[in-house]
Design brief:
single chain; alpha+beta; Rossmann fold; Elongation Factor Tu (Ef-tu), domain 3; Alpha-Beta Plaits; 8-stranded antiparallel sheet; 5-stranded antiparallel sheet; 29 strands; elongated
């Protein structure tokens, strides 16, 4: 990047390689002048549609004056009809000066912005919060930062009222009061001490114990809460393995700090595979998070693709006897069960049904039979994956007055289940993810072919969004494959677990 065209004023700013950050006004390059003229006209038309008077003027004369253009642009941005898009590079110090000028020139002040919607805690009624004429404090926490010296920093935006230093503020989201110490405003990494943060300002406070990103601050005598921030769902997952024992001891705390700062980062321990999984918005997001993990917390990890949490199920039904009998010369063990094993619909889990009548098995032994079957389901017969979506009905059996016990019936239930499963047509099933992908029209055919080759099932094609189901083994790292295998970067993917299907 070497220059930026301001479509509003049709001006071209050239940036030198010395990275001084100040654009030099030049003539618009001839090879893009026609394209710029067309884009300027489209922008003017969009601005004119903000106001009836402006659109009427535009339709009559085909253009707006500079004053009308500026007024319509400000009005459209203020009421949310227009969203300004500015380009630049912070790394190369290009366009930052134009960004600051645009903020001052076109964005509304806190007093003029659209009132923010909130709800009163006492009666759940919806209200609007503005910076004008309200002494009631309300603020939204939009970011937390782990500072190596100051500890946890909480950044918040005041929407009404004010917060003073060395006081208390009520966290409506957590239903607790937090003690406020010294307040700061940030300029880059510099913390400037202030006595209070007023409506419209962005403030910072250190070492709040329970506040996280998305929480609401309000006055304790008039509690309000803002709608929660909706974060994008993770689309990229990897398993982490600490390199050393020291890394293993530090990793839990370090990951907790990272997720406090970045709510789009998710960390979980897979209950089936036992792996520590970290999920984010893509390869770059993942790489940056690992760099921060190493640089700020001194934790190094090995990375690998997650194990796929396969499951086992059945397609058939059978009736089988499970009998456990052991004689040792003294008190023996005896448990006798008859069970029916049948499949359930996907997602129904496990159902145990007691059909015993006439006291064939005493009630005190029934829970032991169920527990034995549940333990047997933890390891299937195909590949030792957990079994799901199975119904077991206990309908008959027998017991011994002396030798029967809970342990005997637990073993009998387990033996019967393991004996009957081979006759129930066991199957291996895999988790399925929902994916939404946006691609250029000329790439649709290639992408569909690639997805079909990886056993993806196309749910439909929409001019706005394409949603398809992809098996989990093919979903991990899918974003990287799409960007590297095809010549486009304008794509979006959403992974949502959507049950399982047979392999």
């Amino acid at each position: 990047m070497s220059g930026i065209v301001d479509l509003i004023e049709n001006k071209f700013f050239l940036y030198e390689k010395e990275k001084k950050g100040k654009g030099k006004l030049e003539d618009v390059p001839a090879d893009i002048s026609e394209e710029i003229e067309i884009s300027h006209g489209e922008l003017m038309e969009a601005v004119a549609e903000v106001d009836d008077e402006l659109i009427e003027k535009y339709l009559e004369s085909g253009e707006l004056t500079e004053e009308e253009f500026s007024r319509g642009l400000k009005e459209g941005i203020q009421n949310g009809q227009l969203i300004p898009v500015l380009c630049g590079s912070a790394l190369e110090n290009i366009g930052v000066d134009l960004l600051l000028e645009a903020v001052v020139k076109y964005l509304p002040s806190p007093e003029n912005r659209i009132p923010v919607k909130a709800k009163k805690i006492e009666d759940n009624t919806e209200i609007t919060v503005s910076a004008n004429g309200s002494d009631v404090a309300s603020a939204l926490v939009f970011k937390t930062v782990a500072d190596p010296y100051a500890g946890k920093l909480t950044l918040f935006r005041m929407f009404s009222g004010a917060i003073k230093g060395d006081s208390s503020i009520y966290n409506t989201s957590k239903n607790v009061s937090e003690r406020i110490g010294q307040l700061y405003m940030l300029q880059g990494k510099t913390q400037i001490s202030v006595s209070e943060i007023s409506a419209g300002d962005i403030g910072t406070v250190a070492k709040l114990k329970q506040t996280i990103t998305g929480d609401t601050f309000s006055s304790s005598n008039e509690k309000v809460i803002f709608p929660p921030i909706v974060f994008p769902l993770p689309v990229f997952s990897r398993a982490l393995l600490p390199k050393t024992r020291a890394d293993e001891e530090k990793i839990s705390h370090a990951l907790q700090r990272l997720t406090e700062e970045d709510p789009t980062l998710k960390v979980e321990r897979n209950s089936q595979t036992g792996e520590l999984l970290i999920s984010g918005l893509g390869q770059v997001h993942f790489d940056v998070s690992l760099e921060r993990l190493k640089a700020r917390f001194g934790v190094e990890v090995d990375v690998k693709a997650p194990q796929i949490p396969y499951l086992e199920a059945i397609k058939g039904t059978t009736k089988v006897q499970g009998k456990y009998k052991k004689q040792t010369g003294g008190k023996g063990q005896f448990g006798d069960t008859w069970i029916e094993i049948s499949p359930l619909k996907r997602g129904e889990g496990f159902i145990f049904e007691n059909k015993i009548v006439g006291g064939a098995i005493p009630k005190t032994y029934i829970p032991a039979v169920e527990k034995g079957i549940e333990e047997a389901m933890a390891s299937g017969i195909i590949a030792h994956y957990p079994m799901v979506d199975v119904k077991v009905s206990l309908y008959d059996g027998s017991y011994h007055n002396v030798d029967s016990s809970e342990m005997a019936f637990k073993i009998a239930g387990s033996l019967g289940f393991k004996k009957g499963i081979p006759d129930c047509k066991p199957i291996l099933i895999e988790p399925v993810m929902n994916m939404a992908i946006v691609v250029p029209n000329d790439q649709v055919g290639d992408i569909m072919g690639d997805l079909n080759a990886k056993r993806g099932k196309i749910q439909g094609i929409d001019p706005g969004e394409d949603i398809q189901k992809d098996p989990c083994p093919c979903s991990y790292g899918r974003s990287v494959e799409l960007c590297s295998g095809f010549n486009f970067n304008d794509w979006r993917k959403r992974n949502v677990c959507d049950g399982v299907r047979p392999l």
